[in-house]
Amino acid sequence: MPVFHTVHAIARYQPSSPKDCSPDEYAARCDLCQVCPHRKHNACELDGVLISVRARRQASRCHASKWPGQEPLIMPAAPAPEMAFPMVANPLPIETPLKTVQVVFITPGVQRGGAERWILSLCRWMQSPVLAVVSTSMQIDAGMRKELQRAEVPVIAHPTNPLEAREAMQAADVVICWGIGKVAEYLEGIDTPVVWVSHGACQWTMKLVYEAVGRVNHWVSVSEMARRVFPEEVQRVATVIHNGVDVDRTSPIRGRQLTRAALGLRDNQIAVGYLGRFSPEKRPAAVAEAVACLPERYVAVMAGDGWNDAETRAEAM
Fold first, then answer.
1. Distances (CA, A) of 164 to 89, 110, 129, 167, 175
2. Exposed, middle or buried by CB within 10 Å (0-12, 13-18, 19+), for 186?
3. DSSP bridge pairs for 132
4. Are strands 155-157 and 39-40 parallel, antiparallel or unpaired?
5. By percentage, how much of the chain surpasses pLDDT 90?
6. Are 34 and 2 in contact (CB under 8 A)?
7. pLDDT tens for residues 125-146?
8. Distance of alpha carbon 306 from alpha carbon 196, whole angstroms
9. 241: Cβ–Cβ under 8 A, 6 or more apart, which residues?
């Protein structure tokens, strides 16, 4: 039986927050999602969000405008014909033999998020030397800075060191960026090719894509879903490169018994883990909500932090 089953979900549904819809509203939404052509397994293929999670919140909207009394989410319109998506010519000719490529990453910040960990893993394991990680803001986590320094990669805050950042980007053979729309502002007068990587599939990412056009030479996404933020003509030439796993980072430091004891877990308990950022778009409290529907021996173990830390902890209690 699939994890999301309408009858089962409705039978077990209990509102846990004033933000949740009523059981009747939840049942109506689930029934409509059950037969919707956009359903793929247990999620909506339009944005990848689990149906049971999206249907629960009163403020949620159906992309396909299927739910009663609600309008669909407004997605950015495609550019007008006279503003067709400009395709930048590929400036990277194939050389024989291939030379060592020097790289600079540009990021909107260096926090403990998935995209930043992706940059750190590439800095550690990529054969090409990384000259620098340039942050377009002052939001630089001290721990991440130290980890990048261990990988012998300097972190440059563009707002305080613009000259140093420009020198690094000029020396690079390729600039890899994510999460930045007006990338041309940081590369004015610099001809270095730009690879733009899509890590998400939301409206925010789509907005940045349209701001970055005209300066990007190569488009990459970390999943098929993330490639959908690109215009159709770009999707045809974009490359999907799935994220790898840094096995050194996932090696256990302590054994199972010591770890469970430190978390206060009994032998008969089953732990359901969440590791990630505490912010609304990640829906961390959904883990606690799911565990609340399971037998008592299931317990949620959540590790992370974020600007929504206090509210997430309160909601998960």
1. 28, 17, 17, 5, 15
2. buried
3. 104
4. unpaired
5. 36
6. no
7. 888 899 999 999 999 989 999 9
8. 25
9. 220, 221, 222
How many CB atoms lie under 10 A from the CB of residue 258?
11
Cβ neighbors of 118 (< 8 A, separation 6 or more) are 199, 222, 243
pTM: 0.64
Mind spelling out the 3-state secondary structure of the chain?
CCCCCHHHHHHHCCCCCCCECCHHHHHHHHHHHHCCCCEECCEECCCCCEHHHHHHECCCCCCCCCCCCCCCCCCCCCCCHHHCCCCCCCCCCCCCCCCCCCEEEEECCECCCHHHHHHHHHHHHCCCCEEEEEECCCCECHHHHHHHHHCCCCEEECCCCHHHHHHHHHHCCEEEECCCCCHHHHCCCCCCCEEEEECCCCHHHHHHHHHHCCCCCEEEECCHHHHCCCCHHHHCCCEECCCCCCCCCCCCCCCHHHHHHHCCCCCCCEEEEEECCCCHHHCCHHHHHHHHCCCCCEEEEEECCCCCHHHHHHHHC
pLDDT tens digits for range 265-313: 999 999 999 888 887 778 888 888 899 899 999 999 988 877 767 777 7
Letter for the amino acid at 258?
Answer: L
Report the residue count for the chain: 317
pLDDT of 69 > 90? The answer is: no
Spatial separation of the C-alpha atoms in residues 272 and 286, rounded to whole Å: 11
> Are the CB atoms for 106 and 186 separated by under 8 Å?
yes
Radius of gyration of the chain (CA): 23
Which residues does 155 contact at the CB level (< 8 Å), separation at least 6? 110, 132, 133, 135, 140, 144, 145, 148, 149
pLDDT at 6 over 60: no
Given a cut of 70, is residue 11 above it in pLDDT?
no
Tokens 């994220």 sit on residue:
243
